[in-house]
């Protein structure tokens, strides 16, 4: 994608978050009764007083299938944003598809293997996240540790300000590593939990978080999810006696719905929905050495 498009959507997103609250709230993530629903502008769902809160505002939009877009949530200002997001989504989709084809090839499958499991009408959701300058970065996360609700996620990071960190797994508790500020035309692709399930944990969803700083930051992330009626399960081709299925089958919709509850609690959806097959079900065996 041309740098002008990437910078254009970055600038338009930032301009939206800089608007007066009243203007942004025209697209608020509330239904007619004032109740929380995910789509639109606001903060993520808060379920309990004890919940870890994030130092960010976000704008969450259904992008694909196109006929499911709810344009009342798409910003009227800046006027360029709708067109830019549409164009960006077309480019981002090509990136996601290329990566999914490559991931299939790596496993020795036909290129369309994962694309077939996602389906022609898979869901794409955009999340613009704005992290205001934070006076106490030592105390506050921009976004708490999580794994993504996606097969893959395509991230367009802030042009100038870092903050995204990925957890390198142990021994021990592991170590947080900074994702550097990328070149202006670079995107980052992250594996989500749905790919972890489909690949029987050959591909793992990395835990990541965003730390705050004294500088504002914005990212635009597109999550790619399977059609809701699709079964989500370890690919038969990746299951054997030596490597039994690590996850139980469930509907993509069940998984997607469970994500919001899990995210509020700061848990992985896989754990929250308890879809890991435990050792006993395999009669012990190799699953103990499979990734946690
Ligand atoms: O802001 C970022 O760099 C990452 C955001 C993120 O991880 C997410 O929206 O899931
Ligand atoms: Fe994420």
UniProtKB/TrEMBL annotation:
Q: Which organism is it from?
A: Zea mays (Maize)
Query: What residues does the Fe2OG dioxygenase domain cover?
Result: 122-226
Q: Which SUPFAM superfamilies match?
A: Clavaminate synthase-like
Protein name listed in UniProt: Fe2OG dioxygenase domain-containing protein
Keywords assigned by UniProt? Iron, Metal-binding, Oxidoreductase
Q: Does the keyword Oxidoreductase apply?
A: yes
The record ties this protein, via PANTHER family, to: OXOGLUTARATE/IRON-DEPENDENT DIOXYGENASE (PTHR47991)
Give the UniProt family note: Belongs to the iron/ascorbate-dependent oxidoreductase family.
GO terms of molecular function: metal ion binding; oxidoreductase activity
Transmembrane feature ranges: none
Pfam families membership = 2OG-FeII_Oxy (PF03171), DIOX_N (PF14226)
């Amino acid at each position: 994608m041309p740098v002008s498009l990437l910078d254009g959507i970055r600038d338009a997103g930032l301009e939206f978050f800089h608007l007066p609250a009243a203007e942004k709230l025209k697209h608020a993530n509330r239904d007619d009764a004032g109740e929380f629903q995910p789509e639109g502008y606001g903060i993520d769902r808060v379920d309990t007083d004890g919940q870890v809160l994030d130092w960010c505002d976000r704008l969450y939009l259904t992008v694909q299938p196109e006929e499911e877009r709810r344009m009342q949530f798409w910003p009227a200002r800046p006027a360029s944003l709708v067109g830019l997001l549409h164009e960006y989504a077309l480019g981002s989709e090509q990136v996601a598809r290329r990566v999914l084809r490559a991931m299939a090839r790596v496993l020795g499958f036909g290129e369309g293997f994962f694309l077939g499991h996602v389906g022609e009408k898979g869901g794409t959701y955009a999340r613009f996240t704005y992290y205001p300058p934070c006076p106490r970065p030592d105390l506050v996360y921009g976004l708490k540790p999580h794994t993504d609700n996606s097969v893959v996620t395509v991230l367009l990071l802030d042009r100038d300000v870092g903050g995204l960190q990925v957890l390198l797994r142990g021994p021990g508790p592991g170590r947080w590593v900074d994702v550097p500020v990328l070149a202006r035309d670079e995107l980052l692709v992250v594996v989500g939990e749905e790919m972890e399930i489909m690949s029987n944990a050959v591909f793992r969803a990395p835990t990541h978080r965003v730390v705050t700083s004294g500088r504002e930051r914005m990212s635009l992330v597109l999550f790619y999810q399977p059609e809701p009626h699709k079964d989500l399960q370890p690919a038969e081709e990746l299951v054997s006696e030596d490597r039994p299925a690590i996850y139980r089958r469930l509907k993509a919709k069940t998984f997607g719905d469970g994500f919001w509850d899990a995210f509020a609690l700061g848990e992985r959806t896989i754990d929250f929905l308890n879809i890991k097959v435990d050792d006993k079900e395999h009669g012990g065996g190799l699953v103990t050495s499979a990734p946690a």
